[in-house]
Amino acid sequence: MSEDRRRQTGLAGETAACQYLENGGYTVIERNWRCRSGEIDIIATIDDTLVFVEVRTRRAGGRFGTAAESVDRRKQLQVALVAQVYLRMRHLTYPPMRFDVIAVTMNRDDSIGEIKHVKAAF
């Protein structure tokens, strides 16, 4: 798959994940927040909880396992490190927070097949 197609797939998955969260009562406050340590796909709030969301998008019938399975320990540590930078830069000390994964499966016709939300995934 070309880099451009992969980027489009990822963007479509992130957009679907934002809509899913907003429909579920979340407020998306950041999208693709970056610092030198990396990037967090979505930062949202629900009630008084800050939620850092890693979005993984895969095509149906892909060869590399499910989207959720692709969030390995290394990626979890990177997201946690970037979250620490975010908290420091926003002067937030110990807010209620969690790390979620949203796995998006896209059909071959580029429609959204499934969205799976794993709360407190790591």
Automatic annotation (TrEMBL):
- Superkingdom: Bacteria
Q: Which InterPro entries match?
A: Restrct_endonuc-II-like, tRNA_endonuc-like_dom_sf, UPF0102_YraN-like
Q: Which Pfam families match?
A: UPF0102
Q: Which SUPFAM superfamilies match?
A: Restriction endonuclease-like (SSF52980)
Can you tell me where the transmembrane regions are?
A: none
Family according to the record: Belongs to the UPF0102 family.
Q: Mind telling me which HAMAP family this protein's record contains?
A: UPF0102
Give the protein's recorded name: UPF0102 protein PghCCS26_51590
